[in-house]
């Protein structure tokens, strides 16, 4: 049942069956094919997406026509919490990287949920803090580290990248050529392995050496 799937969303782990059923009653189903625009750029969000399956990214257009993907959500989870909590201010587009299924919950209902269930509120605010610190770290890396070190740190955290080098470039805010060269250097150092389905970590110690020493060279 749908409320059982909602129980897999980490923020809702503390909710009992009746609370999950109540949440499901006030939400509406949503499905998106791969590459669908879940929310257009500049549109103020009116509902929060409770993502059950699939992957969503925040997408911003670059000056040369490319895209930057500064945030990513894999189901089960709550997509773009800052946008729904930040009021009517518009934000970037949301794109479905894969086929996605979930539920849309109105802003009013989501805020009421946070008011009525302290464990949910604590989880959401804690996740927001973690995300804010991670973004601060990424901004610092973008300003201070060369591309090889940035790619190495990303791969250390992720463990693997399942997708194209172009998509990895979008996630890192680099050009595809820059990411290709950085991955080539890491592959020659036997730190990563390039495969037909993406990139895998081959040697974490070699990768860490590039991630934390490259910026000092």
Description of the structure:
This protein has 217 residues and is of the alpha+beta class. The chain has nine helices and eleven strands. The chain has helices spanning 2-6, 17-25, 81-85, 107-116, 118-144, 147-158, 165-172, 176-188, 204-213, and strands spanning 27-32, 37-39, 47-53, 55-61, 67-74, 77-79, 93-96, 100-106, 160-162, 192-195, 198-201. A four-stranded antiparallel β-sheet has the order 1-8-3-6. Strands 2-7-4-5 form a four-stranded antiparallel β-sheet. A three-stranded antiparallel β-sheet has the order 9-11-10. β4 (55-61) and β5 (67-74) form a beta hairpin. α4 (107-116) packs across α5 and α7 crosses α8. The model has no long low-confidence stretch (mean pLDDT 91).
Secondary structure class reads alpha+beta
Q: Tell me about the biggest sheet?
A: 4 strands, antiparallel
Q: What string gives the helices and strands in order?
A: HHEEEEEEHEEHHHEHHEEH
CA-based shape? elongated
Extended strand count: 11
Distance between the termini: 55 Å
**Average pLDDT figure:** 91
Instruction: Using the CA coordinates, give the radius of gyration.
Output: 19 Å
Strand proportion? 25-35%
Note poorly predicted spans.
Answer: none
Strand order of the largest sheet: 1-8-3-6
Secondary structure: helix percent = 40-55%
Write down the oligomeric state: single chain
Determine the number of helices (DSSP H or I, runs of at least 4 residues): 9
Summarize the structure.
This protein has 217 residues and is an alpha+beta fold. It is built from nine helices and eleven strands.
